[in-house]
Amino acid sequence: QVQLVESGGGLVQAGGSLILSCEASRSIFDNSAMGWYRQAPGKQRELVATITPDYDTNYGDSVKGRFTISRNHAKNTVILQMNSLKPEDTAVYYCNAKRVAIPKFDYWGQGTQVTVSS
Questions:
Q1: Which end of the chain has the least Cβ crowding within 10 Å, N or C?
Q2: Nearest Cα to 29, choosing from 65, 53, 55, 64?
Q3: Confidence tier at 1 by pLDDT (50, 70, 90)
């Protein structure tokens, strides 16, 4: 069974920072675009950031300039550095591993809560 192990959520004041980490197996990590999505209560899940095996990145408009995604090859880990956090960043953050070429897959982590207080 595929596992994406997330860590790093929690409670932070507005303007603060948090780091989220997601560890995957080597085979998943090396062959997929890794990313983070989030879902706030009553809202649809939305893109936060993704990074390909070639280190190409993509960010949601609401986090550009504040969040940074990176890959640590040695640890099979994707990291989301979140700075200048706002109350509207409050959500459950989900790690994702996706491959669009055959063999296709699309795996999700269990989610980690991020709460930003005003």
A1: N
A2: 53
A3: low
Helix (H) or strand (E) holding 93: strand 91-99
Q: Which residues contact 17 (CB under 8 A, 6 or more apart)?
A: 81, 82, 83, 84, 85
Q: Specify the amino acid at residue 47.
A: L
Cα separation of 29 and 38, whole Å? 20
What is the CB-side half-sphere exposure of residue 6 using CA atoms within 13 A? 24
Is the Cβ–Cβ distance between 37 and 93 less than 8 Å?
yes
* Backbone phi and psi for residue 72, each to the nearest 5 degrees, phi listed first: -110, 100
At residue 71, the pLDDT reads 96
d(CA 50, CA 71): 10
Structure-block tokens of residue 7: 């860590």
The helix/strand/coil state of 52 is coil
**Residue 62, token pair as written in the block:** 């609401």
